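Fresh eyes needed here. Have a critical look at this protein's tokenised backbone.
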Amino acid sequence: MTQQLDEAESAFAAARPRLFGIAYRMTGSVADAEDLVQEVWVRWQLADRAAVLNPEAYLATAITRLAINESQTARARRETYVGPWLPEPVDTSADPQVGAEQGAVLELAVLMLLEKLTPTERAAYVLREAFDYPYREIAEIVQTSEVATRQLVSRARKHLADERRVPVERADQRKLLEAFVAAAQAGDLAALEKLFAQDVVSWSDSNGSIRAAGRPLFGAASLAKIISGWAPSFWAGAEASFVEANGLTAIRLRKDSGTYAVITVTASDEGIDQVLWLVNPEKLAAFQ
């Protein structure tokens, strides 16, 4: 009996990074992903493991189906969320559970776009693009045909391609973030506007816990004016350091009470097209 439990624990431990990676990409929440992984562990302990021919496939199926259900209930919960909802950032320089496999489908902007997919489309896309599962295996996991699975992934790819410009290289993203931070701290209106694409969008996730924009802010000129106006209060006394959030460079702001903001940008050849402000304290645990 002890040997069987040891084997079960060993199989689960080997699969755990992938299970967390699937669940996090499906939910955009570290806490929800960890809860789902724990639920799969309980199910694995109670399962008839002697009848399981492929433990990895069994566990991947379990986490994906649980994540599909969680995605459906999460959408209902977010109807009461105050202001824009952004995925919870993870420190991919320090968290092997997320960065252990492919870094695809991990950037915050991509996870935001995945929110517009159906849970089944999202699952098929995550399994294919982030973990390179064969279509046949994805079809078994999401309980549809292989032809339908290919269509799910194709629709998801098209949606992301339609909604997102080709991003700049990561080194260029960091340079633009550094320039943005310098201009924002100085309240330099002209410099900010020059950095932005004309249709730039700013998203602030606070869930009402601190004063922040309760809706997306659009446009280079108006956003530059707003950010330059925030400068004296928002950046005052902050200890700023660069971190890696979901595979891209971000800026962490700290005061005596700890981290109060993680900010990053996405950019294309047209300039910075999104500014993401994570200021909900519940979503900053990875950067405390």
Remarks:
- The chain has eleven helices and six strands.
- The mean pLDDT is 91.
- The first helix runs from residue 2 to 27.
- The chain has two domains: 1-88+95-163, 170-283.
